[in-house]
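Pipeline run #58 for the internal structure catalog. This entry was flagged by the ingest filter as a single-chain record with no existing model, so it goes straight to prediction. Upstream metadata was stripped on purpose; only the residue string is passed forward. Reviewer on rotation: M.T. Logging verbosity set to normal.
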Amino acid sequence: MKPSLEILTICDSDLRLPKHETEFSAGVDLRANISQPMVLERFERGLIPTGLKLQIPEGYEAQVRPRSGLAFKHGITVLNSPGTIDSDYRGEIKVLLINLGSEPFTIEHGDRIAQMVVANYEKIKLKKVEVLPKTERGSGGYGSTGKG
């Protein structure tokens, strides 16, 4: 089994620290840290605090993603999905939710509102050229390779 990446965390709430719920879960659930219920009306967005602050190691980012159950059952999703949390950010993690469902949606303290996946990334340096090497696909995109 791959060793866990340790991330220093401040938790300014009465909620437990997020953890992987199953052996092969890629992400951890983020929970709402709110003092009173919050209602998201249809097409309304809200910034939901989690009470968490992280020290993400250099070379990694945290990605905030929707929870599939909330999206399917209620139309609740993360608006800037995936939201990136950079390794030099030290503020509270907040989740930008939007209600794309047909009914108002109430968020309670401790509700699981999103999931967070930590991923490594490569620094890049763009190099300006006049022509790119040719490929069989070329510049075709947005369905150009066929149905599905």
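catalog note: The mean pLDDT is 94.
catalog note: The helical segments are 68-74.
status: ready for reviewer M.T.
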